[in-house]
Structures are given as C-alpha cells and as structure tokens.
Specification:
The complex is a heterodimer of chains A (361) and B (214).
Chain A: E1 5-6, H1 10-18, H2 58-69, H3 84-91, H4 103-109, H5 117-122, H6 135-139, E2 149-154, E3 160-163, H7 164-167, E4 174-181, E5 186-196, H8 197-204, E6 212-217, E7 237-241, H9 242-245, E8 251-256, E9 259-260, E10 270-272, E11 285-291, H10 298-302, E12 326-329, E13 336-337, H11 345-348
Parallel strand pairs in A: 2-11, 5-12
Antiparallel strand pairs in A: 1-4, 2-3, 4-5, 5-8, 6-7, 6-11, 8-9, 8-10, 12-13
Chain B: H1 3-30, H2 38-67, H3 76-98, H4 103-112, H5 114-131, H6 135-141, H7 143-148, H8 151-166, H9 172-188, H10 193-196
Helix pairs in contact in B: 1-2, 1-3, 2-3, 2-8, 2-9, 3-5, 4-5, 5-8, 8-9
Classes of the chains: A alpha+beta (361), B mainly alpha (214).
C-alpha cells in the first residue's frame, strides 16, 4: 500500500503559508497576545537565528520528497461500500482562504478512498475536549490557536521559544495523504498538510546524547476545560525515539483537507506518525524536549498494561481487551485486515529490527 | 383516577419509553445522521438502552416497596422485555453489522475478549427469563419462577461489568451504573420485617410470584 504523498505547486505553497501571517515580519514578545503557556523566558527565534547550514540542504530535502513520492501505490480498495451521499458532501466542501484543490482529482490519483472532511473533523479523540468522539467538534471552540508558541528545550544546541511562524516555512510544506489507524480499531485516510518533523530537529540541533524527543500539549484550563477532569493526567505528553522522529514519514501537520487544522484536530500544530496508533499523534503541541531517557507518554502512564511507548500498528499484537487484527475504515461496511505498521512496513520496519514487538508494544 | 386507568396510563408510558430508543435510532439511521461510524453508534446506543432498561426493571420492586404504589409491578415485565429486546438488537448489531457474521472472529471474541464474554453471558442468561415471562410459565414454575428470575440481577451486573471493561479510561458512566446497581442491591437486602411495618406495603414477592402478572 502506498504512503501516498502529494505536493503542491510552489505558488500554491506560498499562498498557503501566507495564511500564517508574514513570515518575514519580525516577531517579538510584545506582539503576542498572551505569554507562552510554559511561563519560560521568551525568546522568539526568527529563521535567521538558525544558521542556514543547519537547515536541511535542499538536495537532501528533494531526495526525501522523491523517496516519499516514490512509495508507489500497491494496494487496492477491496469491498468498500461508500455511501454516495457521503461522497457528494465531500465535493461541495469549500476551502476558504486556500487555493481550491480539485479533490476529485486527488481522489482519482489515490489507491485508497479518502475519508470525507466530515469524517476527519467530526469523529475525533481529543480528551481535552471530552471523551466522546463527537465531543471535540462541539467543545474545541475554546481553543485559541493564534498566536501560538512552541518551546524547545533539553539536549539541543538551539533551544528557545519559537513562534508557529518559525516552524512553518515555505518550500517545506507538503500535502501528504496518510492512513490513520486508531488503537480502537477504526481508521481513516487523511490529506494532511505540513512538514517533516526532521526539518525542525535539524534546525534545533539535538546533541549526541539526545535519544528521545518528548512532546507536550497545551495545558490551559480556560482553553481546555476538560483538563479539570481526571481521565488522563494533564498535560498530554508523547514521545518518539530520535530515529522515529527523524524518519521522513513523521510529520508536523498544520492543516488538513487544504485548510488550517480545525481545533478538534489539534490546531495549530500536531504530530502525525502514520505507522503508529493515533494516540501517538499528539495535538496542539506547545513543547518539544530532547532527552536521554524515554519519555513517559500519557496513555502508558494511565494504563501501562495496555499502552506502550512504541504503539506501532501491529495486527499480530492485540490490545489486552480487543483484537487489532482488523479495523473499520470509516465509510466502509466490512472490516478490513490491519496491515503491519499500518502498511508502511517497507519504510519503517528496519527501525525495529531485532526488537521484540510483542514486548515493546 | 381509578386503578384500571392508572394501569393503562402506566403501560402507555412504559411502551413510549421502551420504543423511544428504537424510534430515535431508526430516524437517525434513515437520515444518515448516525455520524462517521454509524455501526459503532448503533452498537453503543442499543447497549446503553438495554442497560438502562434492565437497571430500571430491577428498580421496580424496591420502588414499589418504598412508595407503596403496588400497581408499579405491572411495568416490570414490559420493562424487562424491552431491555432484552435492546440487548438482542445490540448483540445482533455486533454479529451482523459489526462482524458481518464472520464466525472466526466472533468465536475469538466470545472466548478471548473478557468484556464480550461477560456481555454475551448476560444475554444468554436473559433468554430463559424472557421465555418464562408469560402467565403460563409463571403458573407452571410456581416458586421456582422467583428463583430463576433472580438471574436478572446476575445478567444486569454482567452488563455493567461489560460496560466497565469496554471503555478505555473514562469510567464515569460505568461508575454511575455500578452505583445505581449497588443501591438496588442494598435495597433488596432490607430485612422483610421493614416491609410489614407499613400498611400500604405489598406482600413479599417470594410468597406471591404471580404478583408480577401483568
């Protein structure tokens, strides 16, 4: 199956990025509407602060693009029953502020059915806004995704607090269509918009002793009132091994379906790791820390017997309470078999060579 | 209002309550408004309706004792049968729509997934109760009927356990269900003496199984 990737024309990219404000404009503390949630001394780094030599060379970057684009389609949609009304609803969805994309054309180029905008934005797990799948779309309006800052600390040469604008760079932004498999055994196919996490990592230069990167979601009882509940320990945290974080498939998404991420999808910045269960894809990120020891991710902290650090999609290792062998693709009637590493085994299996995946679930 | 009219009214209310979830879900299914995962939505709503109705069924007797409103007993059987009806729909939705009658996986679930094992057991336990809920069976079984129908407590408890084991971490509603069930158990444990002190209280059920007659 494909790691389906598409790239916009450059002009489109620039327009798209313009949605985040003028990236060349000098950013400083007085311009920010509120202090950074972490309360740390603020230092807004402009792109110029990062030595250009530390930013991924264009050639490497292009190679990576080719690599990703080269992951050609192999699977086919089998036995899927799409509701025609659902398909129609997708077509008319406007994309305000962004260049119109011909989604029917995008669809025709994919070997799997794209899920509708409605599927992607009304059926979410985002416990900061309630534990029901329909809760986030109803409750997430309290989140204010602009202005937004991301603190980078830990074992790296260029720590600091960055504006979202510093992360989002023209020429780096890509459309990527990924399968998304939830640990609850449902899945969707999502057209994300964003960039490789690796670009950020290369810019902030983790030191040699950095083995892991930990991510933290916003903790703000006003913007995320459900953080008053005790279903999970807040703020939500996640982590990746450095090689996973630097993998070209790992991305930070700022948009979906050709528009800014809706709040319920983790605005303004979320992680997407297509070969791992969805809960690894931490939303509304405000902090990245480079560490030597493996970070404790929220679900593992809550139920270590059921959720591990890796959370790689694996049809052979069941959740203690339910099977992971199959999944329901939203919009389809029959369950489909879950693929090893969610169908991205060719790209990522080597990361786990020699690792007992049953133990390291 | 005379007794007959009260009973009629009660029955109408119970039937309205019992049919509401089915009507609501049918309407939503017809209008394609069951959300992005309609099968899961149906499954959860049907299971919820079954559990609420079964717990309500168990609440009838204690409520009758406390209020002394004897004709409440008339709603116990329809409530229980509606609960069984939704539980049957819940299981059918699982087997037919969710698993598309894929026996290999259904069998694995029924043997290895503990929340499915207890949920399925609850349904199986309720089958004989539904069958023997008729006048004829009450008469034929006599005192044994009472004993047999105590299985309703076992089945409902298993249903709550199923609910508990099914959720990921948010145990709020399973805890609510457990609390209500625990209160109902405590009320059942009341010594029979307490009942005799009040004139309006009905005869203990153990002596009169036909009191459930509708």
């Amino acid at each position: 199956m494909a790691a389906l990737c598409r790239h916009s024309a450059d002009g489109e990219l620039l327009q798209r990025v313009a949605g985040y404000g003028d990236i060349n404009k000098k950013k400083g503390p007085p311009e920010l509407g509120r202090p950074p949630p972490t309360g740390a001394t603020m230092l807004i780094r402009k792109p110029a602060d990062i030595p250009s030599s530390e930013i991924t060379p264009k050639s490497t970057y292009l190679n990576r693009r080719d690599f990703i684009a080269g992951l050609a389609a192999v699977g086919a949609v089998g036995g899927s029953i799409m509701d025609p009304r659902r398909a129609e609803a997708q077509g008319v969805k406007g994309l305000p502020g962004y260049p119109q994309k011909d989604w029917s054309k995008v669809r025709s180029e994919l070997d799997e059915e794209l899920n509708s905008y409605e599927d992607v934005t009304t059926y979410n797990n985002f416990y900061e806004f309630g534990t029901g799948k329909g809760d986030p779309v109803k409750n997430a309006h309290t989140l204010k995704p602009r202005p937004w800052t991301i603190e980078v600390d830990g074992l790296c040469a260029n720590p600091g607090t960055f504006g979202l604008e510093d992360f989002v760079k023209p020429g780096k932004m890509e459309d990527r269509v990924y399968r998304h498999r939830c640990v609850e055994a449902w899945s969707i196919v999502v057209p994300w918009y964003g960039f490789s996490l690796r670009d950020v990592i290369d810019a902030v230069q983790p030191t040699g002793s950095a083995q892991y990167v930990e991510f933290t979601t916003l903790y703000d009882l006003e913007q995320m009132p459900m953080q008053r509940s005790f279903v999970l320990e807040w703020p939500y945290t996640e982590g990746l091994r450095m090689d996973e974080a630097r993998h070209p498939l790992t991305m930070l998404a700022t948009g979906v379906y050709g528009e800014d991420l809706p709040n319920q999808n983790g605005a303004p910045l979320r992680l997407v790791i297509p070969w791992k269960y969805g809960f690894k894809g931490i939303k509304s990120i405000v902090k990245m820390s480079f560490t030597e020891d493996p970070p404790l991710n929220s679900w593992r902290r809550a139920t270590p017997r059921e959720y591990g650090f890796y959370a790689n999609v694996n049809p052979e290792v069941d959740h203690p309470r339910w099977s992971q062998a199959r999944e329901r693709r939203l919009g389809e009637f029959r369950k489909r078999r879950t693929l090893m590493f969610n169908g991205y085994a060719d790209q990522v299996a080597s990361l786990y060579a020699g690792l007992d995946l049953r133990r390291n679930f | 209002m005379n007794k007959k009219r009260q009973i009629l009214l009660l029955k109408v209310v119970v039937w309205l309550i019992g049919l509401t979830p089915a009507a609501w879900l049918s309407w939503r299914a017809f209008n394609d408004s069951l959300g992005a995962n309609p099968i899961e939505e149906l499954l959860h709503r049907l299971g919820g309706a079954a559990l609420i109705l079964l717990i309500t069924t168990l609440a009838v007797t204690p409520l009758r004792r406390i209020t002394g409103w004897n004709i409440l007993i008339k709603v116990r059987r329809p409530l229980g049968l509606f609960g069984f009806f939704y539980l049957t729909l819940h299981f059918s939705t699982y087997a037919v729509l969710d698993q598309t009658l894929d026996w290999e996986f259904i069998l694995e679930d029924l043997t290895e997934r503990r929340y499915i094992v207890v949920g399925f057991t609850a349904w199986v336990l309720l089958i004989p109760l539904a069958i023997t809920s008729t006048k004829g069976w009450i008469r034929r079984l006599g005192k044994k009927w009472q004993k047999l129908h105590r299985l309703a407590y076992v089945a409902t408890s298993l249903g709550v356990l199923h609910f508990f084991w099914q959720v990921k971490v948010d145990t709020y509603w399973p805890l609510v269900a457990t609390t209500v069930l625990a209160i109902l158990f405590l009320l059942r444990l009341q010594p029979p003496k307490a009942k005799v002190t009040r004139k309006s209280v009905p005869q203990p059920l153990a002596v009169d199984p036909s009191a459930v007659d509708v």
